[in-house]
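Limitations

Structures in this collection are predictions, not experimental determinations, and the ligand pose is part of the prediction. Treat each record accordingly. The example that follows, with pyridoxal-5'-phosphate as the small molecule, is included so readers can see exactly what is and is not provided: the inputs are given verbatim, and the output is the predicted complex.
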Amino acid sequence: MSGRPVYMDHNATTPVLPEVLEAMLPWFGDEFGNASSTTHVYGKRARQAVNEARQSVAALIGARPEEIIFTSGATESDNLAIRGVSCAATGRDAHIVTTAIEHEAVLETCQSLREEGCEVTVVPVDRHGLVDPADIERAMTDRTLLVSVMMANNEIGTIQPLAEIGELCRQRGVLMHSDAVQAAGRLPMDVDTLKMDLASLTAHKMYGPKGVGALYLREGVGLEPILTGSGQEGSLRSGTLNVPGIVGFGKAAEVALRDMATEPARQQALRDRLWSRISSRIDGVVLNGHPTRRLSNTLNVGFQGIESESLLMLAADAAALSSGSACASGNARGSYVIRAISRGPEAESASRSAIRFGLGRSNTEHQIDGVVEALARGVERLRAMAPTVRAVDAV
Ligand code: PLP
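Predicted complex:
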């Protein structure tokens, strides 16, 4: 790995841990059974491995194994939760409440349901990215079926007051879904304390493989499948189970739970050191996101007057970072999350000047100074160029 830039983009994805890979390998080899073909030993062993993984994923979030539906990832889980609840309620005019800074997997699903006739209310967030439970309450009507609020934001890390929102939903008989992708494995999570009815998870943000995720579905909550076929996963998600992926997800969940008391705290100390170095070394920087209610690994910094994509390119040899969600990075649209937390005429430029640092297990204290120096040099260069650019524009 030497010679490669320091990887600080763990909110986009994480590497598969060696122990996760080791757990997965047999299921690509001799253990190739179909977990639904349980008339023979091949299938029985695969089914047993899936059951064990289901227990580990359930344990990470305080759920029961029967409440876990394996999917292809959180995009599918979000779609299944939101569409599945809306379709399950056919006959009622559905109303869904969500927030302005949800992942596209939630926002685009709500948008497509709106085009199909559902009513959707998108609640704003404050300048730290926090949603006010009172705003959620005001948005609810007699027709509200579902409230979907993410547990922690993928770009700025702000952690939402889910227990309060969950309580409001309970009182009103409304279901609560949460995209818990960035929080699971990084924050203790208990579906009962948070009063969640549905929650989306994905393995690749917690050192598991890509292409496997889960939907937590509280027992008794009605859901229509979006993938129909042979009826795997309790007829809620058809398709032959991805046994190696599911085994890897189970192992990743187990490791995340095992290290919950130590690893997030270690990353938080690094994150705070990173911000302290950046803010003392570079002028004109702002911290985007909540100062304290924030994921332990996430730091989002606005570099005033700088296009984040240019800075990322200049610093690319030193650090692998991103300007926002993986889907939006590499384009010039700016971040809708930063736009949603910004106020006034600066919102547009703020949305283009943010860089996200997603720390992870591989990051260490001694990497920090090198990354900060590379950014400081990049910022100096870009700010020195800015007057020239303006002069050229004026000609
Ligand atoms: N939700 C959030 C908050 C995410 O950060 C992501 C991944 O970027 C997703 C959903 C999509 O997850 P997946 O890549 O498993 O489809």
